[in-house]
Request: fold
Amino acid sequence: MAAPAQADDHWPAPVQALTDQGLSIHAEFEAPGGLTGYAASYPSGEVAIYLTPDGEHAIVGTLVDAEGRDLSKAALDEHVRAAQNAELWETLEESHWILDGDPDAERVVYTFTDANCPYCRQFWEEARPWVEAGEVQLRHIMVGILASNSPAKAATLLAADDPAAALHAHSGGGEEVEPTAQSREIEEQVYANNQLFEELGLMATPTTLYRDGDSLERIQGVPSRERMIEAMGGEAP
Reply:
């Protein structure tokens, strides 16, 4: 059972000391051994805090049982990562992407795509069975990072009369997109996508993100067969 986060000035002194050092507390939860747990985060990750029964000391780290099982992960997943993943998914929804597939397909998969990336084309091709069967909709977040004309190509695809058809022709039809000047608005969309790519600490295209329950999984590069099945939600139809 978890309690919601309290006002900062109501934390036990050891926990308050940690918040003063930059930790954010998301929830209090029951822990074994008379400990009280706190699910916390900092700019680059998550951490569990355990308050000792006397209320005078706090332990920061992973709690394990006699079999060595991680007892902290479930609390951090529930109280920190689930909310962060939901927020990130919303950010992906609000990014600038090109729909590939049936907009009514139940499974949504996001992928960062650079028009100059041969691996993006490989991923596009390998995803065809799921996309063409209407089981998955791929949302290509267009970035321009690999070559000097990548931003212009991304902008040209985003600005096309039929972006989906333009991306299809470019990725699978052998019709290389010819970059053309676009409006400031479209250029800023590509810039925003590039910024998102950097903020997420991504290093390669394609990078694919998909939901697995409350988890948000990432695959950098072309997925292996096993990861492809996971990303697409099942075997190829």
Summary: DSSP finds eight helices and ten strands in the chain.
